[in-house]
Amino acid sequence: MDLKRKLEILADAAKYDASCASSGSAKRNSLGGRGMGSTEGMGICHSYAPDGRCISLLKILLTNFCIYDCLYCVNRVSSNTPRARFTVEEVVRLTLDFYARNYIEGLFLSSGIIRDADYTMEQLVLVAKTLRVVHDFRGYIHLKAIADASTDQLAQAGKYADRVSVNLELPQETSLKALAPEKDALTIKQSMATLRAHIDETRAEPKAPKFAPGGQSTQVIVGADDSTDRTIIEKSATLYGSYRLRRVYYSAFSPIPDSSKHLPLKSAPLIREHRLYQADWLMRFYGFASHEIIESSADGMLDLDVDPKLAWALRHREFFPIDINRATREELLRVPGLGTRSVSRIVAARRNRRIREEDLRRLRLPIKRVLPFVKFAGHQSHRALDADALAASLKADAGGSKPGQLALFS
């Protein structure tokens, strides 16, 4: 099989893995004449899909052969999909050639399981090691770790990669047992714990070689089982707390050829995936606890019509309006329409003068969404906040085209 055909098969097979963003790595470049590449993005065209996925990496599988039979995976052993396999040298050459042409900023490499977990992980590590040691490649490398691989192999992966990740796959252990019988939730957690221990160890020793400076991440498939959004969000909160993950990625389930009768017939709506990402940001950057985003009285699902922060605000109108000139940063972050940057600007500006409506307009904020939830001189929002039609008007104002998902090579 020629290289072009391999690339077609193995790039397409990798599209189901969402966790390919290149954020958070250490700054490193080839200025001064040494090596090749950069993690800083200079001269690189960053391209992102509407849901935040980075598509400027060479995102491929080493092979789509797999000895496992995960029912939701197109590369499972019982699938009749076309198979291909790169050699280590082919992946290295593709990465260097694509980078030289300014097509990519780095490499995202995963693989089906061949022979066993350790052999597969050894091949993935060898790609990264060859790029780093032989070619002095300084661009971004993300390796998808095999959960069953030995601790030694995981340690080698973090030595050469900017980020290492182990996929959780499904939010409930019962679902994992039913749909991916060869995978074990405890083994996945142990691998995450191993990676965290190595990361923490090197961060405690400033002079030690960095281990996966971009941290670790994971991916959760949404809609392949009956897990509610509450279950997924609570699981993510646990992962962030227990393993200090840099990111949890959410991938809406999409039916695959010759799929099992145990799987849904329809794709999970992409808007559901989008809402989960918004909820994830509320936990990581806005100070929301997981139980606040979906309260126990709800059905366990996020409102698809409005974003989670607006939904929380509409449920808790007693919290508002807040005085934009006196509220704490934490309180301002709960106002619909105010992001982390705009809150920082408001806090900085009000040190010199009182904030008025024209100041908010200069920040190009969604004024119709912000004004009902704040108060300042010359503006009282009680009437708007108490209006029965507020929810409907804000939902209509937030309407428009729903987020879509770009194909990798469209």
In what range is the share of β-strand residues?
5-15%
On the 0 to 100 scale, the average pLDDT is 86
Largest sheet composition? 6 strands, parallel
- Determine the N-to-C terminus distance: 24 Å
CATH superfamily label of the largest domain: Aldolase class I
| C-alpha Rg (nearest Å) | 23 Å
What is the CATH topology of the largest domain?
TIM Barrel
Percent helix: 25-40%
The count of strands amounts to 8
Please trace the helix and strand order, writing H or E for each element. Answer: HEHEHEHEHHEHEHHHEHHHHEHH
Helix segment count? 16
Structural class per helix/strand content?
alpha/beta
Number of domains: 2
Account of the 3D structure:
The chain has helices spanning 3-13, 88-100, 117-134, 151-160, 173-179, 185-204, 229-243, 270-285, 290-293, 308-315, 329-332, 340-349, 357-362, 367-370, 382-386, 390-397, and strands at 57-61, 106-110, 140-144, 163-165, 216-222, 247-252, 322-323, 374-375. With 410 residues, the protein is α/β, with parallel strands linked by helices. It folds into two domains: 3-293, TIM Barrel; 308-397, no CATH class. The strands form two sheets. The chain has a six-stranded parallel sheet with strand order 1-2-3-4-5-6. Strand 5 (216-222), helix 7 (229-243) and strand 6 form a beta-alpha-beta unit. Helix 2 packs across helix 3, helix 4 (151-160) packs across helix 6 and helix 7 (229-243) packs parallel to helix 8 (270-285). It is globular and about 70 Å long. The model is unreliable at 40-51 and 403-410 (pLDDT under 50).
